[in-house]
Design a protein that fits this description.
Elements (H helix, E strand, L loop, with lengths): L13 E3 L8 H9 L3 E5 L6 H16 L7 E6 L7 H10 L4 E5 L4 H9 L3 E6 L2 H10 L3 E5 L5 E2 L5 H9 L6 E4 L5 H10 L3 E4 L1 H4 L8 H9 L5 E4 L7 E4 H9 L10 H6 L19 H23 L5
Parallel strand pairs: 1-2, 1-9, 2-3, 3-4, 4-5, 5-6, 6-8, 8-9
Antiparallel strand pairs: 7-11, 10-11
Helix pairs in contact: 1-2, 2-3, 7-12
Bound molecules: flavin mononucleotide.
The site of flavin mononucleotide has 26 residues, from strand 7 and strand 9.
Protein name: NAD(P)H-dependent flavin oxidoreductase
EC number: 1.13.12.-
InterPro entries: NMO
């Protein structure tokens, strides 16, 4: 199925994934101006008033470039999010074309966003979630799979994409463990329309992450990533050394997710298995250029194999 029109004109089938304390206006603008969807969680703006300022900046900068990709906003739709209604109103005011919902049912935001011509994709981590999201009437699905940075899924990406493609013909985004352009191509071969890339974008100049985290990502491999529910109550992947430091400082593990808990524990060192693809700190434009090159090389390698000339 072709991607809906706001998403069809991309330089690469890629989204810079929304990340708490990482994605701000500069990263989003740089991603969109490089031709890939730039996404951010609305809670990265400290208040609906600040969100208004961010959206003004993002929409103005994107409008200056004809071939810029659209941006996407991520809403935590958990019942504990007291800002949900105010953030939705703000997104509608700025003509947002794509919202991704996470940590809960998309139902409360579907009607106001659809009325405003905004596509709604839901984060899903199981086939049960998939069925519920499709029943609710979402426009697309973001499949959270094993090895993702931040809140992670459990399902194997090969099996999950194939199982969802068998029952849903709308847009599918593969999230988790996408380290380069070859993996973006692999996601499309499986049947996904787009890939999320999160961890790689942490190590860009435009991210809100601190210098120490960016440097630690360059040094880390996937062997340095570990899974824990201790920080937000949800299974998430972290750099092991950082998590051990937190445990040594007796940071109390939390029981169950709330939006407040997510936002009080800030600047966590979260990363996914794709950290093995982080080899240096670079600009967003350069990261997208390289990913595009890797993607084209992978496509050509596939074509050569099909033509019987591949090794
Ligand atoms: C530091 C960090 C923060 C994240 N915060 C959010 C968030 O606020 N909302 C969300 O939907 N996903 C969040 N994620 C998950 C990403 O959107 C995405 O699913 C994940 O990064 C994909 O895996 P990758 O890092 O291997 O590319 C976060 C991921 C990281 C690494």
């Amino acid at each position: 199925m072709a991607l809906p029109s706001p998403l069809s004109r991309l330089a690469l089938p890629l989204m810079a994934a929304p990340m708490t304390d990482v994605s701000g206006p500069e990263l989003v603008i740089a991603a969109c101006r490089s031709g890939v969807i730039g996404a951010f969680p609305t809670h990265n703006a400290r208040s609906p008033e600040e969100l208004d300022v961010w959206l003004g900046k993002i929409t103005t900068s994107i409008a200056e470039q004809d071939d810029a990709a659209p941006f996407a906003a991520n809403l935590v739709v958990h019942r504990s999010n007291e800002r949900l209604r105010a953030d939705v109103e703000c997104l509608v005011r700025y003509g947002t074309r794509l919202v991704i919902t996470s940590v809960g049912s998309p139902v409360p935001v579907l009607e106001p966003l659809h009325d405003a011509d905004c596509l709604v994709f839901a984060d899903v981590a199981s086939l049960h979630h998939v069925e519920r999201a499709i029943e609710a009437g979402v426009d697309g699905l973001v499949l959270l799979t094993a090895g993702a940075g931040g809140q992670t899924g459990w399902a194997n990406p090969l099996s999950f994409v194939r199982a969802v493609r068998a029952r849903f013909d709308g847009p599918i985004v593969l999230a988790g463990g996408v380290p380069d352009g070859a993996a973006v191509w692999a996601a499309q071969v499986l049947g996904a329309d787009l890939a999320y890339m999160g961890t790689k974008f942490i190590a860009t100049h435009e991210s809100l992450a601190g210098e120490r985290l960016r440097a630690a990502l360059v040094d880390a491999t996937l062997d340095d990533v570990t899974l824990s529910t201790a920080l937000s109550g949800l299974p998430a992947n972290f750099l092991r050394s950082w998590l051990e430091e937190q445990t040594a400082q007796n940071a109390a593990p939390v029981e169950g997710f709330t939006q407040h808990r997510l936002l009080t524990r800030r600047h966590v060192w979260s990363a996914g298995h794709s950290v093995s693809g982080v080899t240096e700190i670079t600009s967003v434009a350069e990261l997208v250029r390289r990913t595009r090159r890797e993607y084209e090389q992978a496509r050509q390698a596939t074509a050569a194999t099909l033509a019987g000339t591949g090794r």
